[in-house]
Amino acid sequence: MSKHSSHNQIVAFIFETGLLNRFKRSGFDFLGTGNQNISSHSYRTAIISYILAERLNADSSRAVLLSLFHDIPETRTGDINYFQKHYTEKKEMKAAEDIAENIKELSLLPALILEFNNGSSIEAEIVRDADILELIFTLKEELDSGNKQAEIWIKNSLKRLKLIDSIKIAETALSVKSYDWWMDILDIQR
Question: Which residues are bridge partners to 24 per DSSP?
Fold first, then answer.
């Protein structure tokens, strides 16, 4: 018997992950504006995780891996936002175990999800903060586009950050306009 999964199982999983391109993050329905898919969120979370891990001399590859896989179970559970969690049980570990069950190359998936959820390593702590930071950046973009309610969400999100570097990055992001970066490059007068 082969030590690798069949190509059919791998192909099915890759198609399944494509759902994250189409599944929307459900919190934006409550915010009233914005529209982000889970893949976009995970991608920017991975970028933030890499930067934080490098700054903190942690394993940046591990942090990126955790970031890329932290929302994979949502192909089966959907994105359950902060409000909905009060009423819905998300069987994330069951989803991770079921996904990994027949794909040997994904055997670490349940452990990755557990590590992320428990914050049981510095890399998991980094990714948990990066997950929140990504939301703060997205909310800042919404605030700069005119949604004043985003400010309340930002304040609540800031309280959840744990790492000093994360807090400083968030504070800096909130002190500028989200579009300043490109205007500064082109030296556009505001």
Answer: 37
